[in-house]
Write a structure and sequence with these properties.
With about 500 residues, the protein is α+β, with helices and mostly antiparallel strands. The protein is built from 12 helices and 14 strands. The chain has helices at about 5-50, 55-60, 60-70, 170-205, 205-215, 235-285, 290-320, 335-350, 370-385, 415-420, 430-435, 445-455, and strands spanning about 80-85, 90-95, 115-120, 130-135, 140-145, 150-155, 160-170, 330-335, 355-360, 365, 390-400, 400-410, 455-460, 465-475. α6 (about 235-285) runs antiparallel to α7 (about 290-320), α7 crosses α12 and α8 packs parallel to α9 (about 370-385).
Length: about 500
């Protein structure tokens, strides 16, 4: 699975990335606009208060003027406001205790006092002319950093004095920090919501793909008749599903033809092989014993019997593929069957050490002949593929409503490339391992089909090096007996 990428995850991450970039940009722009608006509003109020410094009553009571600034700016005692006033000669008129020595007034534009403009004619006899006074010019507002914090400073010059007001921006900074924290908390939450929404939306969009995947997973030799419905399918996936359904139709048609051919061929070969076997057996009884003719006929009879076995297996496999394997269900005692087969092992392989642990009374409902064929195949393979002076271990017990039979034997290791193919038809595995062993490669495949026809399973188990183990599981509703009995050991 290394290197695989999730389309759904990429869609969700891309959506979250785009949304995150948008939200971060919006938050940054909003934060700056809010900050700029607050500073502009502060500058407007500063300009108003600086113009009020021209009133005579202010010039006679700077302390009261400073006090009124707190009300004018709507600030509390925690927000410092400082004022500094000088006459036109640079002599200090008033300076607040909050005024920081780090504040640099030289960075402000030079003070420009009032200027007298040309006289304006009037109709006043006592004063035939009068002069206009140019309004004071404010300096550019500046933001300065000191050891006491950040200040917004503005200044103005009048004919007789100059005034500078500094307002601490700590309050605004605290408000902006709160807004920033709100953004820092809300943006990740919104990103998670966007990520979840994109994940859900992409999941609903890929619903057709999931339906197609589920249909593909159910495609077996018994499920080729399944089709993916296209009633509520998105247009983008319509062609894909149509092509898949057409592929299933072709596979179903081809498989039915192949299955029908196998069944027909097996049926057609069954009768002539039976006749040939009968004729050979009858002729074998008529020839002279120990003659060359008898030996030739015996070899031919063995091959005919072998062909008959292959035909019988092919017929059963074709019936299993078509789901038509008929089972004559009776109560079968697997414990008794395994006990009987132990005697065969002693006769066929007396050199092998056999160890058994079989629970008595392991009864299932099934076809006795077919189950005997499965067990004989497993035990036969354990004998054929064993090592010289090797061993066989047979365990049979019950787990809940399942009967489990495990047959383990010493053997050469099965290559990893062959472990997934041991149940394939006509697969014989590594030639070095099977060169001296007779077989057609149909036994395990047929054994697994028989197990599945009984609602069970046959599997190749993982084992340590030098061992091979197959497990047969069959359903059972029989009440288990207590105790474990060792049926036999040699």
């Amino acid at each position: 699975m290394v290197g695989l990428r999730s389309f759904r995850l990429r869609i969700a991450l891309l959506s979250a990335t785009l949304a995150g970039s948008t939200l971060v940009g919006f938050a940054g722009t909003s934060w700056w606009l809010i900050y700029d608006a607050k500073v502009s509003r502060l500058d407007a109020e500063l300009e108003t208060q600086l113009l009020m410094a021209a009133r005579p009553r202010v010039q006679t009571n700077w302390q009261a003027y400073e006090t009124s600034l707190h009300f004018a700016f709507g600030s509390n005692s925690q927000t410092p406001i400082a004022i500094k006033a000088e006459d036109n000669k640079g002599e200090l008129l008033y300076q607040s205790s909050e005024w920081s020595a780090d504040l640099n007034l030289k960075s402000l534009l030079p003070f420009r006092p009032y200027q007298l403009l040309p006289p304006v004619p009037t109709f006043n006899k006592k004063s035939p002319t009068s002069r206009r006074i140019q309004p004071p010019k404010l300096s550019q507002f500046t933001t300065q950093h000191t050891k006491n914090g950040i200040w917004r400073v503005g200044a103005i010059a009048f004919p007789r004095h100059r005034v500078a007001i500094a307002v601490s921006l700590n309050g605004i900074d605290r408000e902006m920090a709160t807004i920033r924290n709100v953004f820092l908390i809300s943006i990740p939450i919104l990103l998670l919501l966007v990520l979840g929404g994109a994940w859900g939306l992409s999941g609903s969009t890929l619903c057709s793909i999931r339906q197609l995947t589920a249909a593909i997973a159910q495609v077996t030799v018994k499920g080729l008749d399944r089709r993916v419905p296209i009633g509520a399918t998105d247009v983008e996936f319509l062609e894909l599903i149509q092509v898949f359904n057409q592929m299933l139709e072709r596979l179903e048609r081809s498989f039915k033809q192949a299955s029908r051919f196998s069944a027909d061929a097996a049926h057609e070969l069954k009768t002539p092989l039976a006749i040939l076997q009968g004729e050979l057996e009858r002729t074998l009884q008529q020839v002279e014993p120990e003659s060359d003719v008898q030996q030739s006929l015996s070899s031919l009879l063995d091959e005919v019997r072998r062909l008959s076995g292959i035909v019988r297996k092919l017929l059963l496999l074709s019936l299993a593929d078509a789901g038509q394997m008929s089972l004559h269900r009776v109560e079968v005692d697997l414990s008794d069957l395994l006990t009987e087969m132990l005697e065969d092992i002693e006769l066929l392989a007396p050199h092998l050490e056999v160890q058994t642990e079989i629970l008595p009374g392991l009864k299932v409902q099934g076809d006795r002949d077919l189950l005997v064929q499965v067990l004989q195949n497993l035990i036969g393979n354990a004998i054929k593929y064993n090592l010289p002076d090797g061993w066989i271990e047979i365990n049979a017990y019950r787990q809940a409503n399942i009967v489990l039979v495990t047959i383990t034997n010493s053997s050469k290791d099965i290559p990893e490339s062959d472990r997934d193919r041991v149940f394939d038809r006509f697969h014989r595995g590594d030639p070095a391992r099977t060169r001296k062993v007779e077989g057609t490669g149909l036994g395990l495949s047929l054994a697994r089909e028989i197990a599945r026809a009984h609602k069970g399973e046959l599997t190749l188990d993982p084992t340590p090096s030098g061992q091979t183990a197959f497990s047969l599981t069959l359903p059972s509703e029989v009440i288990p007996r207590h105790g474990v009995s060792s049926i036999g050991a040699s």
